[in-house]
Amino acid sequence: MDIDFEAEAWFGNPAPEETLRQQLSLVETENDLLRGEVERYRLNQAKLIRMLSDASDERDMFRREAESSSRKLSEMYVERAQHADKH
Protein backbone atom coordinates (compact mmCIF):
# COMPACT_ATOMS: atom_id res chain seq x y z
CA MET A 1 0.00 0.00 0.00
CA ASP A 2 1.43 3.34 -1.08
CA ILE A 3 0.37 6.26 1.17
CA ASP A 4 1.15 9.84 0.15
CA PHE A 5 2.03 11.88 3.25
CA GLU A 6 2.75 15.14 1.48
CA ALA A 7 0.68 17.87 3.14
CA GLU A 8 0.06 19.72 -0.12
CA ALA A 9 -1.94 16.82 -1.47
CA TRP A 10 -4.20 16.41 1.55
CA PHE A 11 -7.84 17.25 1.10
CA GLY A 12 -8.79 20.67 2.49
CA ASN A 13 -5.27 22.07 2.59
CA PRO A 14 -4.86 25.32 0.68
CA ALA A 15 -2.78 25.33 -2.45
CA PRO A 16 0.48 27.28 -2.33
CA GLU A 17 -1.13 30.07 -4.39
CA GLU A 18 -3.97 30.37 -1.89
CA THR A 19 -1.51 30.53 0.98
CA LEU A 20 0.44 33.27 -0.79
CA ARG A 21 -2.76 35.23 -1.49
CA GLN A 22 -3.71 35.03 2.19
CA GLN A 23 -0.24 36.16 3.27
CA LEU A 24 -0.38 38.99 0.74
CA SER A 25 -3.75 40.05 2.11
CA LEU A 26 -2.37 40.07 5.67
CA VAL A 27 0.66 42.11 4.60
CA GLU A 28 -1.54 44.60 2.71
CA THR A 29 -3.80 45.01 5.75
CA GLU A 30 -0.83 45.52 8.06
CA ASN A 31 0.67 47.99 5.58
CA ASP A 32 -2.57 50.00 5.50
CA LEU A 33 -2.72 50.08 9.31
CA LEU A 34 0.91 51.19 9.55
CA ARG A 35 0.35 53.92 6.95
CA GLY A 36 -2.50 55.23 9.08
CA GLU A 37 -0.28 55.23 12.16
CA VAL A 38 2.50 57.03 10.29
CA GLU A 39 0.02 59.68 9.12
CA ARG A 40 -1.22 60.19 12.70
CA TYR A 41 2.36 60.47 13.95
CA ARG A 42 3.15 63.03 11.25
CA LEU A 43 0.11 65.11 12.19
CA ASN A 44 1.06 64.91 15.88
CA GLN A 45 4.62 65.91 15.05
CA ALA A 46 3.40 68.91 13.03
CA LYS A 47 1.16 69.92 15.94
CA LEU A 48 4.05 69.64 18.39
CA ILE A 49 6.25 71.75 16.10
CA ARG A 50 3.55 74.45 15.96
CA MET A 51 3.18 74.32 19.75
CA LEU A 52 6.95 74.66 20.19
CA SER A 53 7.04 77.60 17.80
CA ASP A 54 4.20 79.32 19.66
CA ALA A 55 5.86 78.70 23.02
CA SER A 56 9.18 80.05 21.70
CA ASP A 57 7.47 83.18 20.40
CA GLU A 58 5.75 83.68 23.75
CA ARG A 59 9.04 83.12 25.60
CA ASP A 60 10.76 85.71 23.41
CA MET A 61 7.95 88.19 24.03
CA PHE A 62 8.21 87.70 27.81
CA ARG A 63 11.99 88.04 27.60
CA ARG A 64 11.64 91.37 25.77
CA GLU A 65 9.07 92.55 28.32
CA ALA A 66 11.36 91.54 31.20
CA GLU A 67 14.32 93.37 29.64
CA SER A 68 12.17 96.46 29.09
CA SER A 69 10.87 96.34 32.66
CA SER A 70 14.40 95.88 33.97
CA ARG A 71 15.59 98.94 32.02
CA LYS A 72 12.64 101.01 33.26
CA LEU A 73 13.29 99.92 36.84
CA SER A 74 16.97 100.81 36.54
CA GLU A 75 16.03 104.24 35.15
CA MET A 76 13.62 104.74 38.06
CA TYR A 77 16.36 103.85 40.58
CA VAL A 78 18.72 106.33 38.91
CA GLU A 79 16.03 109.05 38.93
CA ARG A 80 15.26 108.33 42.59
CA ALA A 81 18.93 108.50 43.50
CA GLN A 82 19.33 111.78 41.60
CA HIS A 83 16.19 113.17 43.22
CA ALA A 84 17.45 112.14 46.68
CA ASP A 85 20.80 113.83 46.02
CA LYS A 86 19.09 117.13 45.18
CA HIS A 87 17.22 117.18 48.50
- What coarse outline follows from CA principal-axis ratios? rod-shaped
The helix-strand sequence is H
Number of strands: 0
Q: Could you name the ranges where pLDDT drops below 50 across 5 or more consecutive residues?
A: none
Determine Rg (CA atoms, Å).
37 Å
Mean pLDDT: 90
Largest sheet: none
Secondary structural class: mainly alpha
Classify the helix fraction into a percent range: over 70%
What amount of the residues lies in strands?
Answer: under 5%
State the helix count.
1
N→C terminal distance: 128 Å
Count of structural domains: 1
Please tell me about this protein's structure:
- The protein is mainly alpha-helical and 87 residues long.
- The protein has one domain (14-86).
- 82% of the residues lie in helices and 0% in strands.
- The chain has one helix at 16-86.
- The termini are far apart.
- The mean pLDDT is 90.
